[in-house]
Design goal:
alpha/beta; Rossmann fold
Length: about 150
């Protein structure tokens, strides 16, 4: 019986150790830049065994994911969230460990979380590869910072 209790405690502590901090990526429509960032972040965080999970949000979400984004991520072999773009909420920012934006963030959201803004990413539909490379560079820099701060 004592062994069972000790094992349960050990399993419980392992589950707690595996809880992940959410990182929120935001772009205007929640359908392109933020989706690419979240997809690459999740892949790279998993490869580094870091306890973070990213989500994509939009300040003014559109109905569907960007066609160029879907084609690009599929060609890259990167898994991504295939759900309809979702709007940024106060709960997203309140619970976020970090927030990286590729567009201006409304003030009500910027007050509740540390925001890192990057409005210099090229248009996805014009040049997916250039936009992806810029986004991935920001994602890698963020992961490096998060890894150093552990």
């Amino acid at each position: 019986m004592l062994l069972r209790v000790a094992l349960a405690a050990l399993i419980g502590s392992h589950v707690l150790a595996q809880e992940k901090t959410t990182v929120v990526f935001v772009c205007e429509h929640g359908a392109a830049r933020s989706v690419i960032a979240a997809a690459y972040f999740n892949r790279l965080a998993a490869e580094r065994h870091l306890p973070y999970h990213a989500i994509a949000r939009g300040t003014s979400p559109q109905e569907e994911l960007s066609v160029a984004t879907v084609k690009g991520l599929e060609a890259d072999g990167i898994p991504y969230e295939r759900a309809k773009p979702r709007g940024l909420t106060e709960a997203d920012t309140k619970d976020a460990g970090r927030l990286m934006a590729f567009c201006p963030i409304p003030e009500q959201f910027a007050r509740t979380s540390r925001v890192e803004e990057h409005e210099d990413v090229p248009d996805i539909s014009a040049n997916y590869a250039a936009a992806r490379d810029k986004i991935v560079a920001y994602v890698k820099a963020l992961l490096d910072e998060l890894e150093r701060s552990r």
